[in-house]
Amino acid sequence: MTTSATPGGAATARGGARFAVADPATGEPFDEAPDQSADALDAVVARARRAWPGWRSDPAARETALRAAADAVEAAADDLAPLLTREQGKPLAESRAEVARTAARLRWFAGLTPRTRVVDDGRPVHSEVRWRSLGPVAAIVPWNFPLQLAAAKVAPALAAGNTVVLKPSPHTPLTARLLGSLLATVLPDDVLTVVTGNEPLGARLASHPGIAHVTFTGSVPTGRAVAGAAAQTLARVTLELGGNDAAVLLDDVDVDRIADRLFWAGFRNCGQVCMAVKRVYAPAHRHAEIVEALADRARSVTVGPGLDPASRIGPLNNAPQLARVEQLTERALASGARVAAGGRRPDRPGYFYAPTVLTDVPPDSPVVTEEQFGPVLPVLPYRDLDEAVAAANSTGYGLGGSVWGTDLDRAEAVAERLECGTAWINHHAELSLAQPFAGIKDSGVGVAGGPWGLYGNLRPFVLHRPTEA
């Protein structure tokens, strides 16, 4: 089987191989996408490598093209957002926000350039640290934020002068293909190519000898496999992996004031956010109050298809993830946990699961120690603050964490003790384009976001020149 690039910059499989794409709100297929042969990646990567010298040589043209790309995404919001909701499941308002963030990221990186640094070490030599692009970048993105995470990888890679082969999840290939079509109208040929398909496509891309950098977002087990595949060619890797973020509530917390923020920090995008709050630690004497505040919101929020304007929480994205969430909840209940809200599938088609708040959960239950990635939130009591911090730090994850309380100095002191890449006070999972984003422990390798994300797509080149003839 051979491939060709469509006008939309998406590699298409000749020979007709395709796979179905389901609507999470119904569980039924509504469209299909090309199933790219792993063997056919050779041609795609070869074209990306041939396009690289021209792209890397003209920073001004790159800036102009990326700004035009941002404009193209914004202009197509009415096409992108409904399609994103249809294949991912999130409410349409969240899809529109994701489209806006995608455009904003492209525009932000368009204006970012690396800085040459002069190193003066006292010798009669003028030494400069300059920066060079890497080559073709493999960007492998998951299904929870198909556009936003694509832009988080594509924008800095392109701004740095690399070309990109973008592989979306087979659960959400359609918006990535549409994004590729839009950007193909403003980018040179083969600077960005979208490939879609089932495994072993991702493994083949990660291990391809023509790829210089593999940037991946997804689960820890898959991240380990990606790193192993990239090691075959010694390609650079950036891995943004799972999270099991803890929210530690202090005894002076104003529950009425923070309850909405805390709820949505756990349940936005149906809990399918790597840095969502996935565990809450509450002072024992206020535990019941906090459980009820969260449960009240879980019981009253409108759950439904993302295209329904009344829906605030949509379905889970796919059947395997629904099964995992249901299994984790059932195991917790079997070990003594109680349901304060939710805890079941509603009687309707699609991959829905009621927003669930759990109490009396054993601390070693998998719903606490593992990443649920769904609308289930355990609330655990603590009697001593040191106990809460130790529990928050006890998992293998280290993406984010938060502390909630009235005394900000005290909250900051507690946040300093959290073993994670980002800690928030009285909010959670809010990032700006200008700041770095990185996890520790099993939550990742490398840095995304801000200038750090740009430099992660570059390598230093040092030039020495004598100051005397």
From TrEMBL:
<dbReference type="InterPro" id="IPR044086">
    <property type="entry name" value="LUC3-like"/>
</dbReference>
<dbReference type="InterPro" id="IPR016160">
    <property type="entry name" value="Ald_DH_CS_CYS"/>
</dbReference>
<dbReference type="InterPro" id="IPR016161">
    <property type="entry name" value="Ald_DH/histidinol_DH"/>
</dbReference>
<keyword id="KW-0560">Oxidoreductase</keyword>
<feature type="compositionally biased region" description="Low complexity">
    <location>
        <begin position="1"/>
        <end position="22"/>
    </location>
</feature>
<dbReference type="Pfam" id="PF00171">
    <property type="entry name" value="Aldedh"/>
</dbReference>
<dbReference type="InterPro" id="IPR016162">
    <property type="entry name" value="Ald_DH_N"/>
</dbReference>
<protein>
    <submittedName>
        <fullName>Aldehyde dehydrogenase family protein</fullName>
    </submittedName>
</protein>
<feature type="region of interest" description="Disordered">
    <location>
        <begin position="1"/>
        <end position="37"/>
    </location>
</feature>
<comment type="similarity">
    <text>Belongs to the aldehyde dehydrogenase family.</text>
</comment>
<dbReference type="InterPro" id="IPR016163">
    <property type="entry name" value="Ald_DH_C"/>
</dbReference>
<dbReference type="InterPro" id="IPR029510">
    <property type="entry name" value="Ald_DH_CS_GLU"/>
</dbReference>
<feature type="domain" description="Aldehyde dehydrogenase">
    <location>
        <begin position="17"/>
        <end position="454"/>
    </location>
</feature>
<feature type="active site">
    <location>
        <position position="240"/>
    </location>
</feature>
<dbReference type="InterPro" id="IPR015590">
    <property type="entry name" value="Aldehyde_DH_dom"/>
</dbReference>
